Amino acid sequence: MDSLTQMALGGVIAEAGFREKLGSKAVVLGCLGGILPDFDIIAGIALRDPWIQLAVHRGITHSLFFASVVSLFLGWVFWRWSKRRASCCWWYLLAFLVLFTHPLLDCCTSYGTQIFAPFSKVRIAWNCVSIIDVFYSLPLFLTLIMCSLLKRLKPEKNTSWLGIITLLLTTAYLIYGSWNHSVALERAFADAKDKKITVLHVEAYPQLANVWVWRTVVKTPDGYLLGRTNTLVGRIVESTFLSDDYDPWIDKALSHEKIKIYRWFANDLLRKKLVKSPQGGGTVEFLDMRYGNPVETNSYLWGARVYVNPDGSLGNVERFHNRSFSLGELLNRTFKGIITP
Hints:
Blueprint: H1 3-17, H2 19-22, H3 25-35, H4 40-47, H5 50-56, H6 64-81, H7 88-107, H8 134-153, H9 160-194, E1 201-206, E2 213-219, E3 223-230, E4 238-243, H10 248-254, H11 257-265, E5 270-276, E6 282-288, E7 302-308, E8 314-321, H12 327-339
Antiparallel strand pairs: 1-2, 2-3, 3-4, 5-6, 6-7, 7-8
Helix pairs in contact: 1-3, 1-7, 1-8, 1-9, 3-6, 3-7, 4-5, 6-7, 8-9
């Protein structure tokens, strides 16, 4: 989930169970702890390696291990800053909750989170909500604003009930997203069965800013059955079969260390395309099937490209993005996706 939403979630957790006991500094800790795990983005930028960035982001800072260790220090710092208000254990508990709910919320998206790092590199993705979803985020921001205003007008007023209600509502929304995910999966399975497709793996991914439009991906021995379904106003899956290319160059490209990283990042849901040049050489593209246009099925947001030299040796390897649209066009596509069955 986006960093601002994570910060707001941390603040609302503080409002719900800690502000009355620990004071306004609890909200500061909640917001700081909520956004702290995403500081790994800075580390990734500093390394200036797009492949290492894939491994670093949502890695160790998004783990149970990180939350357990860092919350001890963070809780102690805020306990001292508050002039030892209440027990240090309360500050530690708050720090742990906001540090750990961050990766838990990220696990609800489709990007993948290494919540068991450094003991495991498994990426957890429950695929029940988009990385940006205003229906989830807006109640959190509004609650922080309302609690702040109420405390200014009536400092003695208890506002924890607002935080509790918001946490219940937003959690219910995640459960609702999970239910929509299961509906999309059932439709994808049924569509593959109707088309007599041999299924190796099936997944459904929420599209931007909602839990109703889903990109369905059915991996087969020969390629992918890529589809779209709307659980709000639609009943079926509109799908297209996209075949993989096969060539020794592709096999060689798959053995490249950077492509191994990309396969791990994309849960090995990569369509393989080969483009040969008349002058010799060419490119091998690996297209991430998880992300694309919420209206069109045969579209991709990003992928990896391997250049092949005329002698068959591998050349440069790069990541590429397909973002040839403005913010306005993106919002229009998102809205159109929601109202299109």
